[in-house]
Amino acid sequence: MEAKDRMARRVVGGVDTHKDLHVAAIVDAGDRILETRSFATTRQGYRAMLAWMRSFGELKRIGVESTGSYGAGLLRYMQAAGIEVLEVTTPDRHDRRKRGKNDDLNAQNAAHAAFAGQRTVTPRSRDGMVESLRVLKACRKTGVNARRIALQMIQNTIIAAPDALRDQLRSMTRMQLIRTLAAWCPDLTAYRDVEAAYRISLKSLARRYLELHDEIADLDMMIGAIVEDLAPELIARNSIGRTCAAQLLLTAGDNPERLKSEASFAALCGVSPVPASSGKTVRHRLNRGGDRAANSALHTSQSAVSGRMRRPRTMWSGVSPKVTPNSTPFAP
């Protein structure tokens, strides 16, 4: 009889995620805490957590913190097991101020939020091509930053280099400079000499720049191929390149059905109007929240469209304007 009552009971879970241990809590149909326990961040730990939660009754859903980082593995496992997972967003500051903060309380707060459906969103699934796109874009971003730092180091090193060395490199373009430095063959045993040390450093920085340049080109090719597979109609539009399209795909995720309407996507990108009325004054302001990277991608695309619209009509059609002595091209 007790087993039947346990199976008939509906429960909701909450998880506070960490690098090595996840702290899980379970609440009953009355939103009362039943138990709290810690589990390892391994497949065996995920399996034990799911079995533990189901031992209290029918598991309705789980609220998980940080599904994009520490909770990514748990998210994939629970979704593969057919469990509804909600991402718990910003904690309740008023409740935290009263009760304090620790891992058990965070897990319990996540369970309460999942039970009430407050401070929760449907997380992006991380098991498709969009997740591959995200990883490649993140790698490309760090590569671009490292390449920029290498170029800055080359320029700063040349500024402080001995005059004889600096005069050789003064009038070169960027790629001429990089390839010239990379082709140098300095004496590696003379590193105690100032000019030799400068030559060794500049050659190392130039080779680093070229390696990063080739790495970024390879990543761009992979990213472009994924974007063309996922959204060929999007990049076929005017003024939407692969970079902007990739960011919009990342914002939508592998499960864009979680976005119920165009308005929800606009709010997610931070381009939706927000009421800012008071009394007889009725007005709106622009949403300053949402995914700022997606907001930047939309702004970049809009700027490109506006720039093309300001161009003369003949430049769009490719037909040269007919100019007469008493007329001006591109006149309305």
Oligomer: single chain
SSE string, helices as H and strands as E: HEEEHEHEHHEHHHHHHHEEHH
Total of DSSP H or I helical runs spanning 4+ residues? 14
Shape annotation: elongated
Averaged pLDDT: 86
Describe the structure.
The chain has 332 residues and is an alpha/beta fold. It folds into three domains: 8-121, ATPase, nucleotide binding domain (Nucleotidyltransferase, domain 5); 129-231; 242-307, no CATH class. It has helices at 2-8, 43-54, 72-80, 93-99, 103-116, 129-159, 163-169, 174-182, 194-230, 232-235, 242-252, 262-268, 292-309, 313-317, and strands at 10-16, 21-27, 33-40, 58-65, 85-88, 120-121, 273-275, 284-286. Strands 3-2-1-4-5-6 form a six-stranded mixed β-sheet. A two-stranded antiparallel ribbon has the order 7-8. A hairpin with an 8-residue loop joins strand 7 and strand 8. Helix 8 (174-182) crosses helix 9 (194-230) and helix 11 (242-252) runs antiparallel to helix 13. The longest helix has 37 residues, at 194-230.
Question: What can be said about this structure in brief?
Answer:
The protein has 332 residues and is of the alpha/beta class.
Give the topology.
Layout: H1 2-8, E1 10-16, E2 21-27, E3 33-40, H2 43-54, E4 58-65, H3 72-80, E5 85-88, H4 93-99, H5 103-116, E6 120-121, H6 129-159, H7 163-169, H8 174-182, H9 194-230, H10 232-235, H11 242-252, H12 262-268, E7 273-275, E8 284-286, H13 292-309, H14 313-317
Helix pairs in contact: 2-3, 6-9, 8-9, 9-11, 11-13
